[in-house]
UniProtKB/TrEMBL annotation:
SMART domains: TSP1
Organism in which the protein naturally occurs: Oryzias sinensis (Chinese medaka)
Name of the protein in its database record: ADAM metallopeptidase with thrombospondin type 1 motif, 3
Gene3D superfamilies recorded: 3.40.1620.60, Collagenase (Catalytic Domain), Thrombospondin type-1 (TSP1) repeat
Disulphide connectivity of cysteines: 124-173, 167-246, 206-232, 273-298, 284-307, 293-326, 320-331, 354-391, 358-396, 369-381
The protein's required cofactors: Zn(2+)
InterPro entries (alphabetical): ADAMTS/ADAMTS-like, ADAMTS_ADAMTS-like, ADAMTS_CR_2, MetalloPept_cat_dom_sf, Peptidase_M12B, TSP1_rpt, TSP1_rpt_sf
PANTHER family: A DISINTEGRIN AND METALLOPROTEINASE WITH THROMBOSPONDIN MOTIFS 3, ADAMTS A DISINTEGRIN AND METALLOPROTEASE WITH THROMBOSPONDIN MOTIFS PROTEASE
UniProt-annotated location(s): Secreted
GO molecular function: metal ion binding; metalloendopeptidase activity
Amino acid sequence: MKKLLLLQCKNLFIQLNGGSGKAVQTCSQRINETSHRRRRDAGEDDYNIEILLGVDDSVVRFHGKEHVQNYLLTLMNIVNEIYHDESLGVHINVVLVRMIMLGYAKSISLIERGNPSRSLENVCRWAFVQQKGDSNHAEHHDHAIFLTRQGFGPTGMQGYAPVTGMCHPVRSCTLNHEDGFSSAFVVAHETGHVLGMEHDGQGNRCGDETAMGSVMAPLVQAAFHRYHWSMCSGQELRRYIHTYDCLLDDPFNHDWPQLPELPGINYSMDEQCRFDFGVGYKICTSFRTFDPCKQLWCSHPDNPYFCKTKKGPPLDGTECAPGKWCYKGHCMWKNPNQVKQDGAWGSWSKHGSCSRSCGTGVRFRTRQCSSPAPSNGGQDCPGVNYEYQLCSTNDCPKHFEDFRAQQCQHRNPHFEFQGARHHWLPYEHPDATKRCHLYCQSKETGDVAYMKQLVHDGTRCSYKDAYSICVRGECVGTKCWTPANWTAVQTKQFCC
């Protein structure tokens, strides 16, 4: 019987970001193929784990669509550095080949609260469906890492993974709870299980290494300034590594944005506190330590004297004083050659197609913070990266008038409820916050079912309100709009 290992979190002060938020369209970072894949020579020592990174809507909403990609790239760079530690005894590269950010509906369908086994199974099957059929494709992955801020298990559970699943088409995957950059150790730990590593001290003689920050400790105490792979982890890895043929390929070159050498350059201590403990948390000011880089202490303005820590330092490169940054747990003078570059917006894209052909739809345009991109601690671009406007405002023919009814009707052949198919009628939820989610009522039984998706952009929020429509899961007013009005999503200023 295949075994699954659970990882319990040492720090229990974990706050999930609540609220439904906006849905994010599923997206995939496309890779430019710049070299031909080849099988490595037998004498070479490197193993390459090519990663599909799946990120659900809870992570995207918490970090923001404008910032989440750089955050994830930084997190994966830290995971790669953990696997480069000499104590492992085997040189493994963690190579990101594809990133997929899931929308709200898909996210809640994969993660079942309180059911880690089913959640992992859902995630692994999802990753299997994403696999590229051609092993020579630039986005073909060896292993899938899935990040969520949803609670998929009991309090404190941080990861779930199949043991020795590496290279298996359905079992080479991990489910990880994301709560700040320390999650890199959770990801490294869970991937270690997939590579064949056991918990230190459980069935081996390495229990005494856990207090010193071993990555595979049952209760992970590793931190940025103190971590290593135990002797047992190295032995267990070497027992299996030669059976993982998928790790023998040289990876393609990929065009991910360039990040600074020190990850903390882009993230203040306040930001790292928010990542670790939730919205509102900032660096604790109730007491001052001699060196703020030794340990990151955080508190919430509602209770400023209650300070929390994950017992690790801020990231290397985090500003700790004017002209200084953290490095290996110490506040040191910055390199004078480091120059900040603030980001600037590129031009707007052309607007996309209208979401409806009649009855008022929505179309979008986007821009990138790339002219130039922020670097070396420079400021990100202000404002939002997409805007939308009304379109197709002409009235629909009578038989097309009820857009919500059309969407429910389209679910008739696809959505089973209580073991049977139904004729679905439109249903307006009494909770105003849920009216942009598709609920339908059975013609046969009168039961109401959630279709696990948002209504299409342009659907009226309510039959009682002719001037409000749903846009990406939120109800917005249209009474004062004209077709020429571009409206930034973030400002919520919908009237002229």
